[in-house]
Amino acid sequence: MNSPENERAMTPLYPGDAGELSADTRRALVQLLAGPAIDGRRHGKLWPALLRDEGLVRARLSELFLELIVDRDLQVAFTRQADTAELDAPSLLRRSPLTFLDSALLLFLRQRLASADTRGERAVLTSGEISSHLDLYEHAINTDKAGFGRRAAAATKKMTQQKILIKLRATEDRFEVSPVLKLLFSPETISRLIGVYERIAAGERVVVADASDEDDE
User: How far apart are alpha carbons 118 and 184 in whole angstroms?
Assistant: First the structure.
């Protein structure tokens, strides 16, 4: 027997609608596919809909060879390509290659997130702090100062577009680091990469492969 919730969900939302999910659950599904995540603090209506119908959403994503990752403590959910073993499965998710500065910025943001967590605070920083950190790596990239500035700006823009950096309202240069970043790097990966980037920042010669200015976008 269908519950009242299921009956409401199966009521067509528009002419020709053959879906079975409620409107708010569909919006949660669309947000997961559009990416990069559902953040319970920012998506106050989508988060409870996702938790309520998590099994249904997980099943829909599985049909697209995607896996749903949900962290209830962080109130964050996102999708990633499912491990299909020997099955040749198409990839729906877009891949965005990371430049050297993209990776350096991601590690810096991950460290700021971890530091804020230990104090029970939100990870908030300014564009000036981002620029100052990236300036440490100017010597590692074979380009002029203007070219380096363009690459640093492109890295910040990419993190903002991907919602890793969330611009705070009523301010021009303050950002919050999304908690989803905590789920993207394992502690082992962080430790290994931080060591490499600290050597580079200290001036040690390390081979750096980076994209051209045109690729930074």
Answer: 18
- Residue 211, domain CATH: 1.10.10
Rounded to the nearest angstrom, the gap between the alpha carbon of residue 135 and the centroid of all alpha carbons in its chain is 23
Hunting for tokens 């029970």 — which residue is that? 120
What average pLDDT is seen over the chain?
82
174 forms beta bridges with 126
In a domain, 8, yes or no: no
Q: Structural domain of residue 145, as residue ranges?
A: 100-216
Cα(102)–Cα(31) distance, integer angstroms: 24
Q: Are strands 174-177 and 76-81 parallel, antiparallel or unpaired?
A: unpaired
Taking the C-alpha atoms of residue 9 and residue 3, their distance in angstroms, rounded to an integer, is: 10
Please answer whether residues 163 and 178 qualify as being in contact, where contact means their C-beta atoms are separated by less than 8 angstroms. yes
> pLDDT tens digit string along 153-209?
999 999 998 888 988 887 778 999 988 888 877 667 777 777 667 777 776 655 444
Mean local confidence (pLDDT), 87-97: 70
Cβ contact 93:80 at 8 Å: yes
Looking at the structure of the chain, the number of domains it has is 2
Q: What is the DSSP letter of 138?
A: G
